[in-house]
Specification:
By secondary structure, this protein is an alpha/beta fold. It has a single domain, classed as STAS domain (Transcription Regulator spoIIAA). The chain contains four helices and five strands, in the order ββαβαβαβα. Strand 2, helix 1 and strand 3 form a beta-alpha-beta unit. The protein is globular. The N and C termini lie far apart (35 Å).
Length: 115
């Protein structure tokens, strides 16, 4: 798995490429979840490059959402690949996470909420 992270005030943009599973979740937790604080409580998560996703990845997404919400933020999913979309729909977590058409649309939504 490869993780790309861009930070700006109030937003952490994350793109995941490859397998998002029990073997790669610790890397995700270390690089993303542990970095969320009151200054960047919103995560825009691009899942377009996810080839496989398992239940431990779902737990990591829920942990991310919980951490963001503790700081008054949200997780916005963009570019959800079929591998991620299917498991999100099967578990009905697609109803829990906010979705946006693009990273820029998600960024605009976050900034509009903060204004």
């Amino acid at each position: 798995m490869e993780i790309t992270i861009d930070r700006e005030p109030q937003i952490t943009r994350v793109a995941i490429e490859g397998r998002f599973d029990a073997h790669t979740v610790p890397q995700y937790i270390a690089e993303v979840v542990e970095q969320i604080d009151g200054h960047r409580p919103n995560v825009v998560l691009d899942l377009a490059g996810v080839e496989f996703m398992d239940s431990s990845a779902l737990a990591a997404l829920v942990k991310t959402l919980k951490r963001c919400m503790e700081h008054g933020g949200d997780v916005i999913l963009v570019g959800v690949a079929d591998a991620a979309r299917i498991i999100l729909e099967l578990t009905r977590l697609d109803r829990v996470f906010t979705r946006a058409e693009s990273t820029e649309a998600a960024r605009t939504r976050v900034l509009a909420r903060s204004a």
